[in-house]
């Protein structure tokens, strides 16, 4: 296959991944309406995907248990998925996605702390732009301080921070087999979301999953296929394109989420969200440019 054609297919695969994640809020929210909380849905989906990886490679459990350096990746990726999927079921989708994509700011700071990468002037600039964009998004009308105002805001910010940690950990553990890293992340998604869901259910804050019914079981199965296909597309595309190109293509998740939220969810996008979102995306694009 010619190089140009191969690159086009790789970019198309990444677009499919971004689209699937950009609209994933819809089935999660539909499951929430059927009585399956986002945390329980996340746990069930990643349990199924993790089981599929285990069936493919039985050595992944032994390798995970024997490699303590993978455990921070397990926790970080688990918190990422639990926070994001919970946030999009209860909050404004566009706002959640934008706050989640503060990831370049957190990644720069974590790369300094964990990997010892320098904080150059350009890095500080994009961190400042991203944080300023978040302040614009968060500022309530008539209020002086741009602080998070809802649980979904906090979940998106914490999820984005842990997503940055996940990326840093993936970079640190690049020598591990892909199946082991993927299994680690799926176990984290199941374990963290399931553990938090269990605690909150016992406390009476989250309802227990209802008895199996065709509608919500089909919804879980659909999410398993969606996120499984998304992971395959990500692996295919990211392994064939430069990292800076991959990052730009994956940013298309933001407009996919915004358009679907407006067209399907009937959400209205405030002017300050557009301005702040543009600043956050600009910071992400600067991070891509600096990575070249």
Structure description:
The structure is a single chain. The protein is mostly helical. Helices cover 77% and strands 0% of the residues. The chain has 14 helices and no strands. The protein has helices at residues 3-22, 25-33, 38-56, 60-65, 71-90, 93-100, 103-115, 121-138, 151-172, 178-202, 214-238, 243-250, 253-263, 271-290. It is globular, with a radius of gyration of 19 Å. The mean pLDDT is 82.
Identify the notable features of this structure and list them briefly.
292 residues, single chain, 77% helix, mainly alpha
Helix content: over 70%
Low-confidence stretches: none
Number of helices: 14
Distance, first to last CA: 26 Å
Strand fraction: under 5%
Task: Characterize the largest beta sheet: strand count, sense, and whether it forms a barrel.
Answer: none
In round numbers, the mean pLDDT is 82
C-alpha geometry: globular
Question: What order do the SSEs take from the amino end to the carboxyl end, as H and E?
Answer: HHHHHHHHHHHHHH
The Rg value, from CA coordinates, equals: 19 Å
Supply the helix-strand structural class: mainly alpha
Number of strands: 0
């Amino acid at each position: 296959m010619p190089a140009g054609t191969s690159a086009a297919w790789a970019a198309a695969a990444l677009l499919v991944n971004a689209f699937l994640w950009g609209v994933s809020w819809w089935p999660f929210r539909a499951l929430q309406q059927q009585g399956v909380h986002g945390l329980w849905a996340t746990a069930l989906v990643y349990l199924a995907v993790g089981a599929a990886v285990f069936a493919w490679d039985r050595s992944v459990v032994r390798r995970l248990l024997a490699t303590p350096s993978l455990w921070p990746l397990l926790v970080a990726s688990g918190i990422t998925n639990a926070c994001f999927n919970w946030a999009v079921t209860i909050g404004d989708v566009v706002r959640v996605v934008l706050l989640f994509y503060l990831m370049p700011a957190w990644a720069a700071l974590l790369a300094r702390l964990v990997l010892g990468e320098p904080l150059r002037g350009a890095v500080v600039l994009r961190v400042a732009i991203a944080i300023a964009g978040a302040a614009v998004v968060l500022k309530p009308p008539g209020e002086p301080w741009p602080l998070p105002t809802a649980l979904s805001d906090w979940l998106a910010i914490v999820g984005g921070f842990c997503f940055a940690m996940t990326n840093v950990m993936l970079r640190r553990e690049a020598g591990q087999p892909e199946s082991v890293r993927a299994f680690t992340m799926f176990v984290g998604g199941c374990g963290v979301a399931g553990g938090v869901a269990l605690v909150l259910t016992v406390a009476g804050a989250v309802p227990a999953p209802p008895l199996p019914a065709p509608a919500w079981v089909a919804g879980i199965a659909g999410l398993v296929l969606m996120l499984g296909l998304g992971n395959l597309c990500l692996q295919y595309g990211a392994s064939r394109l430069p990292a800076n190109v991959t990052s730009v293509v994956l940013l298309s998740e933001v407009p996919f989420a915004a358009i679907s939220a407006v067209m399907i969810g009937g959400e209205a996008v405030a002017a300050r969200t557009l301005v702040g979102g543009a600043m956050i995306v600009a910071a992400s694009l600067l991070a891509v440019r600096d990575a070249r």
